[in-house]
Please model this.
Amino acid sequence: MKKKKPLSIGKIIMYVVLSFWALTTIYPIFWIICNSFKAKNLILSDSFSLPLGDKFTLSNYTTAFERLNIFSAYRNSLIISGTVALVVVLLAGLASFALVRYRFRLKKFVYSLVIAGMMFPVFSTIIPVFKMLNDIHIANTPNLWLSLLSVALPQIAGNMSFAIVVLTGYIRSLPIELEEAAYLEGCSAYQIFFKVVVPLTKPSFATVAIFSFLWSYNDLFTQMFLLRLPEQRAITRLLNELTAMEGTNYGLMASAVALVVMPVIIVYIILQKYIIKGMTAGAVKG
Amino acid sequence: MESSIYKKKRALIVFLVPAFLFMAVFLYYPFFRNILNSFQSIPSLGAGSKGWNTPWYTNYVKLFQDVNMRRALINTLIMMLVTIVGQVGIAIVLALMVDNVGKGGKFFRTVYFFPIVISATALGLMFNLIFLYDKGMVNQLLELLGKSTLTDWKDSAHALLVMMLPVMWQYVGFYFVILITGLNNISEDLYEVAAIDGATRWQRVRYITLPLLHNVICTCIVLAVTGSLKVFDLPWVMFPKGMPLGKTWLTGTYMYYQAFNTNNVDYSSAIAVLIVVLGIITSKIVNKVFKEVEY
Model:
C-alpha cells in the first residue's frame, strides 16, 4: 500500500539516532577484541587503531593461557551450565506437560507456586542454600565435581519457573488429537510425552535450554558463594578474580574478556532467534 | 479439554514431583528459612542458628541506623529511576523509530539485544578499561578532542554515574525487543485510517501507538524496577565493596558484602528480606500508577 517516497529529513535523523545506538552496542566489544591483540603501551596510548602489522601481537593470549586456568574454567562452566540446561529442560518439560494436560485438584495452587518461584531474588535464598549444601558436604569441599554440582543445583531451581511458564504456553497450543491417536496405538503417557510432545515442541525446548545455559554461564553471584577454591572456578568467577590478580595487566584483561565473550558471540549469531525469543518470552508472560 | 488418556493420575506424580522438589528445596524452603534467619543469631556462613536475637528485630533496627545501608537504598532507588527513564525511555524512542523507518528492523533487533547475552562480569572488566584513568577509551577520546587533563571516572564525583551507565546500557535492547513485539501487534489499518483522516506522523504516535502500547510499557517498567533490585555482577566488578568510600553500595552488593566479607550473616539475611519487600512495594506502586487498561 505504501508508496515509495524519497528519504525525508525526519527519516534520516531517525536512522542517525538508531545507528548511533547500534554503534554503542557493537563498538565497545569490537574495541576490546582489537585491543586484546595489542601490547599494553599501545592499549593505553593508541587504542583506536586496528591491530595490524607491527601492532599485532598474540602475547596477551599466550599469557592468558599460561597464567590463567582458562581451559579448566571453560570446562567447569560447560559442566555446570550444561547440567543446568539439561535438567531444567527435562524436568520443566515433564511438569509443563502434566500442568497442561491433566486435571487435578490444587492445579491452580501449583501454578501459582510456579509464578511465585520467579519472584524470589537469589539474594533471598542463597544463605540457607549455602548452609544446606555445606551440611551435606557438597559445597565447600575440595571435590571438584561436587562443587560444580553445588552451583548447578540452585541454578536449576532458579530457572525452573521461567521454563515451565514458557513450555506450558507451547504445549497448550498443541492439538490434542495427535496424542489421542498415539494413545489408541497403545502408547503410555510417558511414551506420548517423549515421542509426540517433545518432537513437536523442539523449538521451545531449544529456547529454554539455550536461555538456561546462558543465564547460568553468565551468572557470577552463585559462583561467588559456592566456588571457593581456585581450581574450581568457572569462567565468570575467574574473570572476577582477574582484577585482584593482574590488576594492571590490561592486555591480559582484554584477552581474557575476549576469550569469554567470543564463544557467546558466535552462539548468539547462530541462534539469536531462539535466544531473543527465550529471554523475552518468560518475562512478558510472567 | 479433558481426554481419556490423562485419566490415570499415577503418571502425574512422576511428571510433577521432580521439578517441584527442586523448587521446594532450593527456592521455597530457603526463602522462608531466610526470613527466620533474619531474626536469629548466626555466627558464620554455613553455621546453624544460635537462637533468636534479643530483641528479635535487632537487625531491622540496624537497617535503619546503618549509614552504608542508607547509601545502598538511595543508590538502588536512583538505579530504579535510571532504569525507568534510561532503559525503558530509550527503548521506547528506539522502538518507535524502528517502527517508523520500516527497514532494518531485524538488524537493529539483533544488534541492540547483543549486550544482554554477554556476561556482566566481562562487561564490567571491559568498562574498567573504557573508563581507565591513565588512559582508557574515554580519556583517550577526550584527549583526541582536545582535552588536556585526565578525568578520574572512578572518583567519588563520577562513580555513581559510571556504575549506572553500563547497567542501563546493557538492558535497553531487552525492553526494545518487548516493545517492538507490542508494536507489531498494532494493526496497520488503524494507521491507514488515521492517515486518511489527515493525522500527522506525530499525531499517529501520540494518539494510536502510545495508548495501545500502554500495557506493554507498564510490563516493561515493572520488569525494570524489579530488575534494578537484582543488579549485582557489573557493580561488583567495577566498584567492589562500595568503592570509593562506600559511595556505590547497592542493596545487592551490600547484602553480599555483609554475608561474605564481614560475616554478619543474619544481618545480611535481613537485607535480603528488605530487597524482597522493596520489590513487592515498588511493583505495586508501578501497577497503581500505570493501571492496566483494557481495550
About this structure: Chain B has a mean pLDDT of 88.
